[in-house]
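On clarity, I found the account of how folds are encoded harder to follow than it need be. What matters is that the chain and its backbone geometry are given together, residue for residue. The format is easy to grasp once an entry is in front of the reader. For illustration, here is how one protein appears when written out as sequence plus structure tokens.
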Amino acid sequence: MSRERGPVFLERRTYRRRRMSDAARLMPILGAALFGLPLLWGMAGPPTSTKRVMFYVFSIWFVLTVLTAVISRYLRQEKQDTSDTGEW
């Protein structure tokens, strides 16, 4: 009745690659949530200055761009490493 099971844990390289691809898929959702956040600031109390909101928006834009570039570079590097060795 009991079949022999494979290993419970994934190989470290495969696990990291999958988590990074998951992070790349979640970037648009994170961006939408962070860009929508200033819409809630006016409800909490006095209106927020436009300068502060614009600084926030461009800061978030910059941070998301840098994070996406880092994730993209990591995934591209991993793909090249696996194609050179013949592994999947």
